[in-house]
Amino acid sequence: MLPAVAKMPGTPRKKAVVAGPKATKRTPPQIDRLDQVQQVIVGSLEDDKAEDVVTIDLVGRAAFADRMVIATGLADRQISAMATHLSEKLHEVGIKRVQIEGAGGSDWVLIDAGDIVIHLFKAEARALYGLERMWGTAGLDEPTG
Prior knowledge:
The chain is an alpha+beta fold. The protein has six helices and five strands.
């Protein structure tokens, strides 16, 4: 807190408001915690019979997440169920704000679990978008031909 603000009368909350917002810097999550959440995600997907589950490390390569998990489902209903079960299991391990896009029956469902982003595809959509090619170890420099 600023020295002038500390001497002002009022509650600590009011002093904090007067002092203004603190500059916050995104701190990376604990690796152990990230590994634990990844295990919950992969385990849930495997329990729901997801195919070809792949995890990609994004640390230092993307600002939106530290890891990406990609999996394939056979039908809209299976993909929707995987998303629902995954949301429930993430909630159980303390991740309360899980955002799900496309769960209403599409070829691609995106689940944002904070530091890990999960993509659930039908096989055709997964091949079309090619996220593994884009975010894999070779990245965008990999030839697509």
